[in-house]
Write a structure and sequence with these properties.
The complex is a heterodimer of chains A (144) and B (261).
Chain A: H1 24-31, H2 46-59, H3 63-68, H4 73-76, H5 85-107, H6 115-119
Chain B: E1 4-13, E2 32-36, E3 39-47, H1 48-51, H2 53-59, H3 63-83, E4 86-95, H4 98-107, H5 109-119, E5 122-131, H6 133-140, H7 151-185, E6 190-193, H8 199-202, E7 207-217, H9 221-234, E8 238-246
Antiparallel strand pairs in B: 1-3, 1-4, 2-3, 5-7, 5-8, 6-7
Helix pairs in contact in B: 6-7
Classes of the chains: A mainly alpha (144), B alpha+beta (261).
């Protein structure tokens, strides 16, 4: 595939080349959040995945970093069932999120809860994802 | 013996069966290809002890399990995407039998075909931008003392100026992120925004102001990467991070507003 030979962008960035070296947060936001979701024979509770991604967003972005620093509290307790304050925060947070999702669902039975969709906006502006930008006339160039 | 299921990683078009011969999936299982009239589901057997309903619920909460499963999933999708256009499926899509997986492939043929033609000849690139808000604010800050004012008044004025310059710096950074995004959008077929990864938790210094995925025509990939590099060069106040090439995860699903270019 074209474009698979990228090695670097100089000092400003360190692009990831191989899948095994990709950042976990980057992978998770793709494999959990994106991709075509079809119902397999094994039911995955979408609600749980939604909750999980929200929860993970708060935690997982730091996993690689945390491991580097030798923090691995979750490894000793995969279910996060220790009495740590972090756990309590999560329980509290889960409860809050479940309530919120329940409220959303009550508003619209058919719709899949979309808590994080609402929160997913990387740049603070009102426009939606734009389409067909490739064919668009270029705007004035402020750079340089 | 534990019951097995079939884990489906993604659906490809024109994937030579031999291409995946050496690839291993979750749990180290060999990857196979189920073909149906030109479409190929990329699969591997998994134990339902691990991927059954109850087990999954438990395992998804186990970050270590999740990490290794997500990485294995990504590894297979990436390998397939290197050989043929591939639409990734969500993590842990599991059928009880090969026949059931084949049925799903058949039933959803239209959806897969549409998705495949959308992403064909294109690759996803991720761009994240970080800014150091403190530095931006401090360079903007005017260091003027008010003559004759007491220390308390001076302090309050300073604080107020600081807040103002911080807010201005914030706005400026957002604007800059928007311009960077605009410039990259011009080179992309489309783009989707991901939620910024939390600055306090990412361990990355700085404030993540942009976390976007761009779907770029392969002929323009070089231009796109050059553009990111030159933006990084000319905008030193913003740290840019390019990731990819990714299989087009972020563009696998159709969104209402999608229009073909």
């Amino acid at each position: 595939m074209a474009g698979r030979g990228l090695t670097g962008l100089g000092r400003s960035s360190a692009p990831v080349r191989r899948p095994e070296s990709a950042n976990l947060a980057d992978i998770l936001e793709r494999v959990l959040d994106k991709g075509i979701v079809i119902a397999g024979d094994i039911q995955i509770n979408l609600l749980d995945i939604e909750l999980l991604t929200i929860k993970l967003r708060l935690v997982i972005a730091s996993v690689d970093r945390a491991k580097e620093m030798g923090i691995d509290w979750w490894e000793h307790d995969p279910t996060l069932s220790s009495g740590s304050s972090r756990h309590n925060e999560m329980v509290e947070e889960n409860r809050r999120l479940r309530d919120r999702i329940a409220a959303l669902e009550a508003g619209d039975e058919e719709q899949r809860p979309s808590v994080e969709r609402r929160e997913r906006r990387a740049v603070d502006r009102s426009g939606d994802d734009r389409r067909e930008r490739g064919s668009r006339a270029p705007e004035e160039d402020d750079f340089g | 013996l534990a019951e097995t299921g079939i884990y489906v990683y993604g659906v490809s078009r024109g994937l030579p069966g031999a291409a995946m011969a050496r690839v291993t999936g979750v749990g180290g299982a060999s990857v196979q290809v189920i073909e149906d009239e030109g479409l190929a589901a990329v699969v591997s057997p998994v134990s339902l002890d691990e991927f059954g309903e109850e087990a999954l619920r438990r395992n998804l909460e186990d970050l270590r399990w999740l990490e290794s499963t997500a990485r294995a999933h990504h590894g297979v999708v990436d390998a397939a995407a290197e050989h043929a256009v591939t639409v990734p499926l969500g993590l842990a899509t599991v059928y009880r039998t090969e026949e059931r997986a084949r049925e799903a492939l058949r039933d959803r043929r239209e959806e897969f075909t549409r998705a495949l033609s959308r992403i064909s000849g294109r690759t996803e690139w991720g761009v994240k931008a970080y800014a150091d808000l403190g530095a931006a604010a401090s360079t903007a800050e005017a260091e003027e003392e008010t003559p004759g004012a007491g220390p308390g008044t001076s302090y309050l004025r300073r604080r107020s100026t600081q807040r103002q310059t911080e807010e201005e710096a914030r706005q400026e950074i957002l604007l800059l992120a928007e311009r960077i995004d605009d410039e990259l959008c011009a080179l992309a077929a489309t783009r989707r925004l991901h939620r910024p990864q939390d600055p306090q938790l990412s361990g990355e210094p700085g404030w993540m102001v942009l976390n976007a995925a761009y779907l770029v025509d392969d002929e323009r990939a070089e231009d796109f990467r050059t553009a990111v590099a030159s933006l990084a060069e000319t905008r030193p106040e913003m740290r840019l991070q390019l990731t990819g090439p990714w299989a087009p995860y972020s563009f696998a699903t159709e969104e209402e507003a999608w229009t073909e270019s």
